[in-house]
Specification:
This protein is mainly alpha-helical and about 150 residues long. The protein has one domain: Arc Repressor Mutant, subunit A. The chain is built from seven helices and two strands; from the N terminus they run H-H-H-E-E-H-H-H-H. Helix 1 packs across helix 6. It holds the Pfam family Rrf2. It comes from Kaistia nematophila. InterPro entries: Tscrpt_reg_Rrf2, WH-like_DNA-bd_sf, WH_DNA-bd_sf. GO terms for molecular function: DNA-binding transcription factor activity.
Length: about 150
């Protein structure tokens, strides 16, 4: 089963962008996300449209965070990514004639809805600033180096 890792990847690079304090190119972000720069630009476009990031072309250009990290939640980022499906699980048939399958679908649907609601509440309670603070705590506890921030080899 393939997972949609865009939210995780975007949060990862947003924290790197906050740490950098200067524009980061799509190529460098792509290295951090282990993907192609075109994919990064497509993903970041949604964040740009939502007002979270800005890009500059040319020498010295790249992506920068322009939002207040304390005001942006993980749910905000999730929505800017297009609200991808939370679960890969689903019903065998959406409109079954079989009464057994109807009972199974009703039970699963209820569980899916409860789980999704809980996840969305959690995403709405965590800000980019809280993620950055968690990183800084881990960095200090481990006596981190520039490599821990830059992905340098």
């Amino acid at each position: 089963m393939r997972h949609d890792s865009r939210l995780s990847g975007v949060l990862h690079v947003l924290l790197h962008m906050l740490e950098a304090g200067e524009p980061i190119t799509s190529e460098r972000l792509a290295e951090m996300m282990s993907t192609n720069p075109v994919v990064v630009r497509r993903i970041m476009a949604g964040l740009r449209d939502a007002g979270f990031v800005h890009s500059e072309k040319g020498h010295g250009g790249g992506w920068t965070v322009i939002c207040d990290p304390a005001a942006v939640t993980l749910d905000d980022i999730y929505v800017a990514l297009g609200s991808p499906p939370v679960f890969a699980l689903g019903h065998r048939s959406e409109n079954p004639a079989c009464l057994v399958e109807q009972a199974v679908n009703a039970s699963l649907e209820s569980a899916f809805q409860e789980a999704e609601q809980l996840l969305m509440e959690r995403l709405g309670a965590v800000t980019l600033a809280a993620l950055a603070a968690d990183f800084h705590q881990r960095y200090l506890a481990r006596r981190g180096t520039e490599k821990d921030i830059s992905h340098a080899s």
